[in-house]
Write the structure tokens for this entry.
Amino acid sequence: MRELERMGEADRHRTIVATRNPCFEHTEDLWALGEGALLFIPLLGSRRRGSVLSELQSRLSRGEGYRYTLSGTSRLSSTERAVLRCIARGWEARRIAEELGMCEQSVRNSASRVRSKLELHNDVGLALYYWGLGTRF
């Protein structure tokens, strides 16, 4: 993800990201970076692979984005998702507050709401969830 953030916008639009991470919030963050295509590998069964890759190639050649991922919606607000992303990077509340323009107490409150909504008990659980390394999927 950090490499995508460092890329220029034109380069991201030509990038294909394939992931096995089932975390919806992580997928949304990847898509928000503006890459050309985002694929969730477990959905690419052998019967669909050819048609999906053909559609991907066609859309990218026209300069359009293509997304083949799990559907659904996040239970988190955009602020809560941003706090989750920062926690997953190992940032402390102070750094998150500076990055997101919030006070530290608001960061702590948001983190508490995220843990409650995702039914996770600590920041380690949040990080494992975000990076697709947890066992709750």
About this structure: DSSP finds eight helices and three strands in the chain. The mean pLDDT is 86. Strands lie at 16-19, 37-40, 66-68. The longest strand covers residues 16-19.
